Amino acid sequence: MTATEPDEVRGTQQHQGLLYSGAARLLSLLLAGGLSGLILFLPHLVAEGGVDHGLLSLLMWGIAAGFVHGVGYVPLHRIWRLLFAPLLGWGLMLVIGTLLLTGR
């Protein structure tokens, strides 16, 4: 890291902890891929229950965050980094996915 690098670049190099380890990224990819596969190949699970579109939108946000984190991309801008944070994505995928798949 040099003194001439922008703050954004230096900020992305700090994402080296457990949250950005290979195992955590694999978890994100598996969750996002699994939920995407369920929605793609078994759409009746979502359609039959008369799913609330707001909840489905939140689930899609979580899936997007899972794919962004899973492929190892770290957004430079702080707002995008917060919107696609792995903990937010995991929470949305687990909570909303469970709600939608159990029919509650």
Keywords, please?
104 residues; mainly alpha; 6 helices; 68% helix
Shape: elongated
- How many domains make up the 3D coordinates? 1
Mean of the pLDDT scores? 85
Going by helix content, strand content and strand pairing, the class is mainly alpha
Distance between the termini: 50 Å
- Please compute the radius of gyration using only Cα atoms: 16 Å
β-strand percent reads: under 5%
The string of secondary-structure elements, in order, is: HHHHHH
Q: Would you identify the regions where 5 or more consecutive residues have pLDDT less than 50?
A: none
Could you describe the 3D structure shown?
The structure is a single chain. With 104 residues, the chain is an all-alpha fold. The protein has one domain (20-102). 68% of the residues lie in helices and 0% in strands. It contains six helices and no strands. The protein has helices spanning 7-12, 22-41, 44-47, 53-70, 78-83, 86-102. It is elongated, with a radius of gyration of 16 Å.
Give a brief rundown of this model.
This protein has 104 residues and is an all-alpha fold. The chain is built from 6 helices and no strands.
Helices, strands, pairings?
Blueprint: H1 7-12, H2 22-41, H3 44-47, H4 53-70, H5 78-83, H6 86-102
